[in-house]
């Protein structure tokens, strides 16, 4: 005698061996006796089913449930801390974004201006024609040194 319950898992589940997303089912079989267990194991082995043992006594089952709940709680804590850390990093990056945007704009303006220069092959240098205010000529000459 056995009682079997089959329930499809909603959505796709990633198979740990193949890495492919697959539709999975959860099957629970309640049985009594060694012969029924042997038959169920043979069927499961032939289908590649993963078996999870269930303790005999209620105390052992309660202990196993408590262990699973503890692991789930730890995983939730790790996920919550990871999310908080990620959010903090993103907030810090968002605060620096205007500075980075201005720096990229300056570097792009410099690159665009340098692309207007001509290359002098004889002297192996870039040559540009520009104007500046006479009062600022010393500042320009100082910046070019």
How does the SSE layout of this entry go?
Layout: E1 2-8, E2 13-14, E3 21-22, E4 25-31, H1 34-47, H2 58-115, E5 118-120, E6 125-127, H3 137-144
Antiparallel strand pairs: 1-4, 2-3, 5-6
What does this entry look like structurally?
The protein has 145 residues and is α+β, with helices and mostly antiparallel strands. Helix content is 55%, strand content 17%. A two-stranded antiparallel sheet has the order 1-4. The protein has a two-stranded antiparallel sheet with strand order 2-3. It has a two-stranded antiparallel sheet with strand order 5-6. A hairpin with a 6-residue loop joins strand 2 and strand 3. The model has no long low-confidence stretch (mean pLDDT 91).
What does this entry show, briefly?
With 145 residues, this protein is of the alpha+beta class.
Topology pattern, helix = H, strand = E: EEEEHHEEH
In the sheet with the most strands, the strands line up as: 1-4
For the residues shown, what is the average pLDDT? 91
Low-pLDDT sequence parts: none
Q: How many strand units?
A: 6
Helix content: 55-70%
**Biggest beta sheet summary:** 2 strands, antiparallel
Briefly note the structural class of the backbone.
alpha+beta
What's the shape? elongated
């Amino acid at each position: 005698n056995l009682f079997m319950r089959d329930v499809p898992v909603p959505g796709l589940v990633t198979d740990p061996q193949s890495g492919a997303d697959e539709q999975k089912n959860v099957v629970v079989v309640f049985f009594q006796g060694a012969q029924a267990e042997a038959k169920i194991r043979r069927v499961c082995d032939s289908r590649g089913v993963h078996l999870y043992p269930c303790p005999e006594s209620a105390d052992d089952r309660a202990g196993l449930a408590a262990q699973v709940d503890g692991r789930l709680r730890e995983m939730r804590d790790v996920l919550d801390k990871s999310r908080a850390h990620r959010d903090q990093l993103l907030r810090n990056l968002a605060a620096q974004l205007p500075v980075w945007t201005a720096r990229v704009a300056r570097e792009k303006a410099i690159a665009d201006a340098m692309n207007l220069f001509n290359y002098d092959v004889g002297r192996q240098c870039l040559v540009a024609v520009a104007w500046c205010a006479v009062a600022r000529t010393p500042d320009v000459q100082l910046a070019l040194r």
